[in-house]
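DATA SHEET
Item: assembly model
Revision: 1
Owner: S.N.
Input lines:
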Amino acid sequence: MSEEAYEKKVLDRFSDALISFLVKVITLFRKDWYRRNRSRVEEWRLMLYALNRSPIGIAGLILGMSFIVVGIIGPIIAPHSYDFSFIMATGQYKKYFLAPPGTDGALLGTDDLGRDLLSQMLYGARISLVVTALVLPVGIAIGIMLGLISGYYGGIVDEFIMRVTDMFLAFPGLILALALSAALTDRMAMAIANNPYLTGLVSFVFAVKPNDALNMAQTLSIVVALWIVWWPGYARFTRGLTLQEKNNVYVEAAKALSMSSVGIMTKHILPNIIGPLLVLMTLDVGNVILVEAGLSFLFGAQMKIPDWGAIVQHGSQYLVNGAWWLVMIPGLAILISVLGWNLFGDTLRDILDPRTRRSIEFKVKKRKRGEEVTQE
Amino acid sequence: MSDGEGRKPLIEVKNLYVYFYTYAGIVKAIEDVSFTIYRGETFCLVGETGCGKTVVSRTLTNIVPPPGRIVKGKVLYHRDGEVINILDLPESKLREIRGKEIAYIIQDPSAALDPLYVVGYQIAETMVDHGTVKDEKEGFARAIKLLREVLIPDPESRAKAYPHELSGGMRQRVVISMGLSNEPQLLIADEPTSYLDVTVQAQVLDLLRELKKRKGLTVLLITHDMGVVAEMCERVAVLYAGNIVEVAPVDELFKRPRHPYTVGLLRAVPNPLTEIEKLESIPGTVPNLINPPPGCRFHPRCPHTTERCRREKPPLVRVGPSHYVRCWLYAEKGGGEA
Amino acid sequence: MADLKRFLVRRSITFIPTLIGVTLITFIIAFVIPANPARAWAGGIKANPQVVAMIVKEYHLNDPWYVQYYFFMKGILTNSIVDPLFNYKVMTYMLSRFPITFQLTLFALFFLIVLGIPLGIVSALKKDTIIDALVRVWALIGVSVPIFWLGYIFIYVFFYMLGWITVAGVPYPKTHITGVPIIDALLTGDWNTFVENIKRFILPGFTLGFAGIGVIARLVRNSFLEAMNSDFIYFAKMRGLRRSRIFMHSLRNALVPVVTVLGLQFGGLLGGAPITETVFGIPGMGRAMVQAIFNMDFPVLIAGTLLAALIFIITNLVVDILYAIIDPRVRF
């Protein structure tokens, strides 16, 4: 089908380059991979082309990537440290107490302690990013693993895992996360205090001073809490997908060829269910950002190194005084980041859904000559 | 076309064209289809899957689903002396005809019934909305009687059952009773037995035959099974790739099939009483209707193709009493009639 | 109806292990996860060592875990857990705050149903028009916006700028029947209090339900479209049924999955309650839990978590039963 005359767009060349790059990398590890998976690669190519033709999807992707980029370079380009105070530095209390955006050197304004909102936002971006990057892969990995096992083996194993999943799902997510992170804080603090490697890691990853690493205990407990809250949803979803796949003939064939169960699960079932899972994961990025922001909002003052949610909580007290920027700007940042991932995830879902896929395919493969399709 | 037995026409389909506008292209599903159904007869529409028989049946009440559209043609309905073109009627008038004067029985009875309502209610509502009964209560009582007529045992309790609680055969009988509930002029049975197993199939066909005899129904039977045709029909039209290729009384069709496709169809049904070495089939496959073959649509698979077949589409010509064929083998002889 | 009863029995049986599991998980959070549970329960850093010792004794924290679990459950069920910090019965306290949160979620649910469902139907009927696009945008924004941000914006507009709503206290009617202020006001005919409650809760309720409205609307839209395009609706048209009847068939079929999703959304409402209550200053369960964190009041946190889970489980049970009533196919 790749011989069809596609109307290639500019972006398509980037997609082609991306795919060639990926294929080269994979071929380094497995020489014959491309040969055996050629049709799958063409599928990916088609999907990327479809993405290129969706302005909303591209917009979402850009916003989502911005979240990642800002998160990474935030602390590096921040004009001041997170604990820097204009008031302390210049002594100009009146000028830098709840200074509105645009004040000398404080592009986004300051809070009641004279701290620069812009810098705080940039450091907060890193915290949000790290939390998201830590929570999702682990939570999803646990969930997928358990879901595969549950769905594939069935019987008592399935019953047991599903019962446990149900028990966790009986708790409203945010509330469970709240209780868990409150309970875990002490342990996290002890772990950081007792382990210099952990201290170093924490301070590097969150871009805080080593002395402040201990203050990240609350954030770390949020990460672990979210691992526990996140896996049940994926376990259940993966199990559902696995049950459907299990009935396919190729599974029977693999069994007949004496393939190990683990092998079947990882090499056959998993690649086939990765599509819907990928969509869920993408849409979930926004959820993690929101939940983390919500939790840090609720923990408020206990988040000694504030990230976006905590900034809002701290600033909300001064809304009466008219300091709208402390609440509006972090909230807007959260909204934009989450929106980006949701837009991208939505588009991804449309591309991967076999029902909507057909019409997208034909949009992509529009013939150059002749036959114009008349739509009613 | 006229009918030897002097029956009056009920439905006249003239030069019907139905196209489907899909993103893959325009599917020319039905091209220049014409036939007449006479009062009191059982008329069969035969063809393989995908030839367009269901689409044709849907045109009779102008209910072809999008992306399909009737682009040209007439469907003339002879009602009480006057002749109406169904395709000209507004939706409100069409609604009155559907389910009352022209009723359908469809292939998959599970797809016909709303899973959330008991079957008795669904039969009743068909009657209520057409004024055949006063309200749902009377409709429900009538429904029980109808269920008895279609030979459902214990109709009082069955009427209160949900569709998923009934077997396939029973669901089809429910659909049949819906079709008969308003005493239609024309009953369109679209492959009524395809989703049933063979024993139930026989029962349902017997039932249909009995009901038709008792009520003097006019039936349009759509099927791909030549055996059903032989059992049930008086006149047959053979449909291939959206064209009518042959029309004849049933005996005539079986004894003297003219169109090569009909010949192939009949030959494909093995005779259980003779020894066969291999199964006969018609070589090739059904054509792509976005780009149908030029000329006669059957020519790529026909053993008697000529140059003319490849270029020109043959007209429908008379080759015997009430027997018409669309094929260049016969178009030279006999009087032409489109 | 016999199989409905059978279904009820079967469903209730799965209810119990989940219930036990929930208490187990709560117990683990309460006693196993914290580094020093006795100290956490006694008030954290500022705990009086004598209180700590008393807690260790009372909850047998030096005994094997099942013994601890037993005494924990006993404390919960007999409502004898007394908060060491503030010296009140924990469960009583949480249960007293429950009606307020219930009222808040009631308002949110009201919006989900009264706005979400009609918007979804209109969206389906007017597919691909401006209304459809707007509903789509609402759904998207709804799940992307942080609740607290939305709440503060609303407060700024409707309270500071327009003064339409109130943000202080909860108006209680003179007589308490159910404990839920707005219901009591309705039952006693106390019109004033009724209106005051509406002014107080309408905005927080809308904020809490904002995301859910969009989700429900999209769901109803898609579900309705699917129903409208289903085979039996096509057959209904073939039978010449009148349009209103066909609409009812589509609607009823479309609403079947909505019931389940409403139930799941309820969990989200409970989860969003702490934030909404904090932003709007509503003295409900969620706010109590947040204050507990600030006060290092661990027992309250645990009680709230357990209570929330309990409410959610019961809600889901009710939803499942409703679902079986609506959809006869499920009853097997």
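QC remark: The CA atoms of residues 20 and 26 of chain C lie 10 Å apart.
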